[in-house]
């Protein structure tokens, strides 16, 4: 297992989010931007694999960004939020409702490993703050992936009934993606 893999439910959530945010025809826009192999495996065919190449996920980020989101950050973040609600929000509904953002950040490494074969996600949690550091993963070199992960973490934290005004910032350091979260 040399190639980084992601759980296919991530892609399923992306497909649902594209349709929810941009409409059914938006999948055609995504398909136009995707490389042929990724389009064939993720749009044209019914996915049967549980684990898929992580590069397919990053290609989807790019395709949604360039396609239906039109490189508009606000539109792209609406898609990311819908993706989190479709995937993480549904699967871990009880955790999200009962946990604080602090607890979710403390469990970040475990949650990450459920959906990604590679990468080390570590958290340093303070009072109403957390810093998440992802290393040894392809996302560490991609601004678009950094946007997705930072907004995903922010939105997941905002779903907690125990948090308000969750904000996120990110930076790409050599070999690392660093996400800073704050909430009230």
Explained architecture:
With 184 residues, the chain is of the alpha+beta class. It folds into two domains: 5-89; 99-182, Trafficking protein particle complex subunit 3 (Muramoyl-pentapeptide Carboxypeptidase, domain 2), CATH 3.30.1380.20. 54% of the residues lie in helices and 18% in strands. A four-stranded antiparallel β-sheet has the order 3-4-6-5. It has a two-stranded antiparallel ribbon with strand order 1-2. β3 and β4 form a beta hairpin. α2 (26-33) packs across α4 (54-66). The radius of gyration is 16 Å and the shape is globular. The model has no long low-confidence stretch (mean pLDDT 90).
Topology:
Layout (H helix, E strand, L loop, with lengths): L4 E3 H15 L3 H8 L2 H9 L6 E3 H13 L6 H14 L1 H4 L1 H6 L2 H6 L1 H8 L4 E7 L2 E7 L7 H16 L8 E7 L2 E7 L2
Antiparallel strand pairs: 1-2, 3-4, 4-6, 5-6
List keywords for this structure.
184 residues; alpha+beta; Muramoyl-pentapeptide Carboxypeptidase, domain 2; 2 domains; globular
Whole-number radius of gyration? 16 Å
Strand order of the largest sheet: 3-4-6-5
Structural class: alpha+beta
Strand fraction band? 15-25%
Low-confidence stretches: none
User: What is the chain-wise order of helices and strands?
Assistant: EHHHEHHHHHHEEHEE
The profile of the biggest β sheet is: 4 strands, antiparallel
Q: How many angstroms separate the termini?
A: 41 Å
Approximate shape? globular
Number of helices: 10
User: How many structural domains does the protein architecture include?
Assistant: 2
How many extended strands?
6
Helix content: 40-55%
Mean pLDDT: 90
